[in-house]
Amino acid sequence: MLLALVCWLAASSPAQAAPVLIVNGRVVEPQPPPVLVQGQTLVPLRGVFEALGARVDWDGTQRTVTVVGQGVTLRLGVGRTVAYRNGQAVRLEVPARIVAGRVLVPARFVSEALGARVDWDALRQEVVIVTPSAAEELQAGEARHQHREVSAGAVSLVSALLQMGTGELVVSGGAGHLMEADFTYNVEAWEPEVSYAEEGGRGVLEVRQPSTSGTVRGEVQYQWQVAFSDRVPLDLRVHTGVGPCRLELGSLLLRSLQVTGGVGDTTLDLRGYRGGDLRVSVAAGVGEVTVLLPREGCARVRVDGGVGGVSADGLQLVEDEYLGGDCSDPGGEVYVQVRAGVGRIHLER
Fold first, then answer.
1. Could you read off the pLDDT of 72-112 as tens digits, one per residue?
2. Are 73 and 55 in contact (CB under 8 A)?
3. Final residue of a domain: which of 112, 134, 156?
4. Same domain, yes or no, for 302 and 157?
C-alpha cells in the first residue's frame, strides 16, 4: 500500500526539476539535463554511456545512434519506436529524440541492455545506474564520531546545502563558526563530504552523504547534528531521504529555505525568527510534517495536495491560506508553501 501511495504522490505532484542522474555513485550533469517523457527518463547519449564504458556513434544522415559495449551493439533511430539489440528488434515505449541539438535516448533501455542496473527514486527524483563491476557490498561496523568546523570570511551571504540519503538529521543555530557539525556513522563509505568556497563576497557550503552503489549488511548508525552561526545570512537547502529530520532554525538569519523530504517525520521550528521577510518551500514525502511558526509578525502558510489532512493551531484558514498575526503591515512576513505528500501536516503558531 505504501508503494501505491508513493506512486500516486509522484504522479500527482507539480512539475519537478530535471531528474538527478547518478552513475556508479557519482552525480553526472549532462547537457541538456535528463527529461521525463511518459514515465521514461531520456538522457544525452554522450557522456552518460561513455561513463558506462560504451562507445557511442551518431550517424547524422540516417539519424541513428549506435552504442557498443559489453559485447552488445544497440541501434536506435531518432523518432523510431523500434530499436535493435545485436540485430534483434526491440520495441521502445519512448523513442530517442533531439533536444537542444543533442540526442536523448531512454536511459533504462540502453543501460539494462549493457548489463547495468537502473533504479528510479521517485521521492528524490534520482535515476541511479550501476554497472556490475561497480556494485559492492558495504558493511556496517563500529560507530565513528567526527567533528567538523567551517569558518567564513567577510561574506554577505552563504548558500548552504545539506543532503542526506539515510539517517537522522538535526539542524540548529548558535554555532561559533559558520558551521559546526558532529557526525556519527558506521559505514566507512558514508563519511560525510564537506566543502566550502568563497567568491565575490559569497560563500557556498555543501554537506553531503556520499552516493554509493552497494547494499549494506548490518545495522546502520547515521546521525548528523549541524549548527550554523546566527550572524551570517543564509540561503539554506535541506534534502533528506529516509529518516527523521528536525530543523530548529528560529535564531538564524535566513534569507530563504527549501526543504525536500523523503520517508520520515519532519519538524520545522521557526519560533523566535526575527530576520525579516522569509520564503520557505517544503516538499513533503512520506511522513508527518510539523511547522512551528514565530508568534511575532505575520505568518502565512499554503498547503497543496497530499494525503493525511491538515491541522492548524493559532492560525485561521482564509480562502486557500492559513494566516496568523497582523499581515496588513509590510515587513517581517514568513510565508511557507508546503507541497504535501503522504502524512499529516500540523501547523502551529
1. 898 889 999 888 888 888 888 788 888 888 888 888 777 77
2. no
3. 134
4. yes
